[in-house]
Amino acid sequence: MVAIVIVLAALWLWKGDKLSQNGLTLFPGDSATPSPTPKPATPKSSVPGVANYTQLVNEYVGRRLQFNDKCQMTPVSPTFKNGTKIMLDNRSKDPKTVTINDVKYSLVGYGYQLVTLTSKTLPQTLNINCDSLVNAGKVLLQATISNQ
Question: Does any domain span residue 16?
């Protein structure tokens, strides 16, 4: 057993420089692809090239669902028209998984995602869960009536 530890230590010291890629030191069994780490100081989005967070907050006034550190949703039960684009906004430093009628959205700490709410059957109540909190809120989705 001691011999195995000595051999592994020697191998590690000998190949240590060769196992370092892009500032990431690899150990036996590790992958060469680093996994992303959420950075809570800056809001993140899965939409490339979007405006900054403050602009989005202003743009999505009345169409933003916020989730706090306990996964409580604000507002609790808003109403939107079918096809409305909303902002899911995580105001916690911890990542959250928001589920809207069985569709999951991953939000990094202090992150957000833009989501379009649609249904073929209207009116429709969309149940919202956040992590393990069932029924964090609900959204009533109504038909859009055109004046044609």
Answer: no
Give 65-98 pLDDT, tens digit per residue. Answer: 999 999 999 999 999 999 999 999 999 999 999 9
Is there a domain that residue 147 lies in?
no
Q: CB of 122 within 8 A of CB of 143?
A: yes
Q: How many other C-beta atoms can be found within 10 angstroms of the C-beta atom of residue 142? A: 14
Between the alpha carbon of residue 69 and those of residues 27, 97, 109, 130, the distances in Å are: 35, 12, 10, 10
The overall pTM is greater than 0.85: no
Is residue 73 exposed (0-12), middle (13-18) or buried (19+ Cβ within 10 Å)? buried
Distance CA 135, CA 73 (A): 9
Is position 15 within any domain? Answer: no
Q: Report the side by side order of strands in the sheet with 64-67.
A: 73-74, 64-67, 84-90, 112-117
Please spell the DSSP secondary structure of 5-26, one letter per residue. Answer: HHHHHHHHHHHTTTTEETTEE-
Give bridge partners of residue 86 from the DSSP assignment. 115
Q: Are 95 and 108 in contact (CB under 8 A)?
A: yes
